Amino acid sequence: MSNYLAVLQKSVKFFGPSIAMNHNAVRTLCSVPAASYNFETLKLSTPKPYVVHVELNRPDRLNAFNKRMWTELGECFSRLHNDPDCRSIVLSGGNSKHFTAGIDLLDMMKLGQELGEIEDIGRKARLFEGLIKLYQDSISSLERCYKPVIAAVHTACVGAGVDLITAADIRYCTRDAWFQVKEVDIGMAADVGTLQRLPKVIGSQSLARELCFTARKFQSAEALSCGFVSNVFESREEMISKAIQLADAIANKSPIAVQGTKKNMVYSLDHTNQEGLDHIREMNMTNLQSEDFINAVMAQQSKDTVPTFAKL
User: Per the confidence metrics, is the pTM higher than 0.90?
Assistant: First the structure.
């Protein structure tokens, strides 16, 4: 073991200058000023170093999704993906009565008026195609973001809310939380992620299809038993506190290790085991040469040293 540590120490000296140089270049390219996160439908804060709390912020409409929220969610998570001051994210419903009431029907009525002005069915379809793609990309931005996303749900999570949290990495909820894949009740099939992600999240095609075909509500106890959420809390305050605590623990790990882990786990969801193994092998050819690996191993050996990791 002493010989191995000596090799690691030499590696630090060998790779150190180039790693630092590359790190500074990447930080310059990726840095996003915190003050620039200025959204109408979202509220951002930093409760812990490297932890960003994203709150849905349309309490007067029960956090219902309008076009502005769809757009801002996609922009927010795309920017957090590249922000070196963010390593983990908590997503909550803020101070609204519910996490979200789903699609804003008033916004859908505006869309109906816009469609009414177009006579040709082909041109109406083209408008729908663009909107659906915008909404799909908005939800998928959580999955594409390399930073782990912890969804913290209180009371109702309806329709688009289920789409949203199935794209998160970890889901917590309060005891009074309930969920509903609502789309069939308004005459449509869910089209922005639930049908693709929910069966994988809960691991049951039978239950997923039952929930999607019937639009029935399922409560926190059922959500916990089927694996849709991993923890249930008695109050919103306790849930947010525990979610931030978890996000803080993640943020204190190597960002290269955590982000590489998420990237491979997402990739492996729709690839074979061998393809997933090939993917992580190709990633770790580079990542095992990182200063993070060396620092973490040295800290593990010294027992009393807490490793610190440079921004990524």
Answer: no
